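Backbone-to-sequence.
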């Protein structure tokens, strides 16, 4: 009986060490800036740290972005989660690209999908920082004609005194990916993996 009790104590101690180390990484990520303009560092070593550090980047970018141009945080995070497997993808970690943003310019720094070995007309854009990819994603949604419906619906919500709703706005992003169920994925991630779990 004593041996079993000791095993539980060792497990409890190990879990406590893991929790303390995760909190240290999270706190240091929020305090420490990676870039010259004090962008928060987006950390991809765990789902929770990824979400919270991505939230810090969005908050940083929104300091200078008018409300009419902002995208609900839960929507930004849901798309980044889908596009990178919660920050674990090669494109996220080698290219700082959290949204599968492409480049059609061979001279621009890029990564090729595996197993490609040569340029085939496009590549995945490489960003200096992960927060830079968030800024570019926000620019794309605010400027590219494919997302005009998103912008109109967001403005309607604002005009009616409502806070833009990521769950509703997700339905307008059918053109972001080729999968026919892409917007369903975004809605599911928001509803079951973000809302009620994270305070953004």
């Amino acid at each position: 009986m004593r041996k079993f009790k000791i095993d539980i104590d060792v497990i409890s101690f190990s879990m406590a060490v893991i929790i303390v180390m995760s909190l240290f990484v999270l706190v240091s990520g929020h305090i420490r800036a990676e870039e010259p303009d004090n962008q928060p560092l987006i950390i991809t070593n765990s789902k929770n740290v990824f979400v919270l550090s991505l939230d810090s980047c969005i908050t940083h970018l929104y300091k200078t972005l008018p409300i009419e141009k902002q995208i609900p945080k839960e929507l930004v995070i849901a798309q980044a989660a889908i596009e990178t497997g919660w920050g674990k993808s090669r494109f996220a970690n080698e290219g700082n690209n959290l949204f599968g943003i492409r480049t059609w310019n061979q001279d621009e720094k890029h990564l090729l999908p595996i197993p490609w070995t040569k340029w085939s007309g496009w590549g995945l854009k490489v960003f200096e920082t992960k927060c830079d990819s968030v800024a570019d994603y926000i620019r794309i949604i605010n400027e590219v004609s494919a997302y005009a419906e998103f912008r109109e619906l967001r403005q309607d919500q604002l005009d009616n005194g409502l806070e833009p709703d990521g769950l509703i706005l997700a339905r307008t992003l059918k053109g972001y990916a080729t999968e026919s169920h892409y917007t369903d994925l975004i809605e599911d991630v928001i509803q079951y993996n973000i809302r009620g779990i994270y305070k953004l």
